[in-house]
Amino acid sequence: MTESELRDxxxxxxxxxxxxxxxxxxxxxxxxRLQDGYLMTPTNSSLGRLKADRISKLDLEWNHVGGDKxxxxxxxxxxxxxxxxxxxxxxxxxxxYATAIGxxxxxxxxxxxxxxxxxxxxxxxxxxxxxxxxxxxxxAMENDIHEAAKxxxxxxxxxxxxVVSGKTLVDAVYAxxxxxxxxxxxxxxxxxxxxxxxxxxxxxxxxxxG
Length: 210
Ligand SMILES: O=C(CO)COP(=O)(O)O
Ligand SMILES: [Zn+2]
Hints:
This protein is an alpha+beta fold. The chain has seven helices and eight strands.
């Protein structure tokens, strides 16, 4: 896709996430890898009202070279995109149910959402690391996120929200949606004898679709 097409898609998907309540206010941010750098949602912008020509552009060294001032979470996005060369985009949200799980689970928990459904396993994977709490925009989070992203497509920031990557922008958005709905299911079924997918079923999904 051209940069112009990706800018338009970012506006469309941001509005769609916002309209369905996956982000509120100016929460959340999205980045997309380009051949000559990165697109990033501007700081303090609402995902519901992005403007294609105001989206921030960063060069390959992550210097701001165009559009409005980028998200304060540039370090978070850089941590994931440098750890996962196959990732084309990163979506960070404060979506309610995934954030709730991030308030219950701690960094020792590597799978705070059980494998209840195939699409969670296919889009998010086997592990979902929990990163200890950092203040939003704190550059100190970069190393923890970078290390976690080497092994996992998505993670939860404790008491903050999910960070999800995908091969393409559409893949990253789909994975963020699937993560949120899986978190909702997990909380809905908490304390009930829900049947989880077996390790063999998880292996089969990852072999077939991973
Ligand atoms: O989600 C956010 C902080 O974690 C929003 O920050 P920005 O508005 O700087 O992107
Ligand atoms: Zn945030």
